[in-house]
Amino acid sequence: ALSLQRKKKKINVSLKLATLLKTIPLDSPPGDPGGLQYHGYKGNWGNLPDFDKLDIAEKGRSKSVSIPASLAGKEHFGLRFQGFIRVPREGVYTFYCGSDDGSRLVIGDRVLVDNNGLHSYIEASGVIKLKAGFYPLTASYFEATGDESFSVSWEGPSIKKQKLPAEALYTRKPVRKKTRAPIVPCEPAGN
Asked: How far is it, in rounded angstroms, from Cα 108 to Cα 77?
């Protein structure tokens, strides 16, 4: 418990620390460095939709969390970037989502920044303590009408506030199905 005093009134506050997120060690990259995969969607929303229920209109790989050139100047679309972020050292990190219209940033399984809804450019932030390693990252965004803007930045130990650099972003390694050679019946040779 913690006691605070505000306007000569004492307030008792209880703080609960969240458990740390599961970390992938730095020596075991979960994918390829240099950016994230993204999916683009078409639709008209007032809040971020459930992208899992929508058809993908375009997809690609991006070196940054930003609006791809193919969607610049357009309206009624959504984006979801997915991959991993490489956290170089243990410490407290602040992540920022700046957007016009809504956006959300999820690290691991935690919504760290929720900047949802119809609005002009607003930057929202969230703070989290992370160990060195790789963490799943999902950044979502939607644009209704008017200006469009989306970026994700961070700051932490020895990192001044900056947009997420490509060298800290990793795409998931593709899952390759194990295939076997087909079984073809053979007839004896030489008959």
From this structure: 25
pLDDT value of residue 149: 95
Measured distance CA(133)–CA(93) in Å, rounded? 13
pLDDT score recorded for residue 12 = 72
Q: Which positions ≥6 away from 191 have C-beta within 8 Å?
A: none
Lookup: tokens for 77 = 């679309």
The H-or-E segment that residue 138 falls in is strand 133-143
What pLDDT, on a 0 to 100 scale, did the predictor assign at position 191? 52
Residue 121 DSSP symbol: S
Low-confidence ranges of the chain (pLDDT < 50): none
Nearest to 103 by CA among 87, 92, 119: 119
Q: Do 40 and 56 meet the contact criterion of CB atoms below 8 Å apart? A: yes
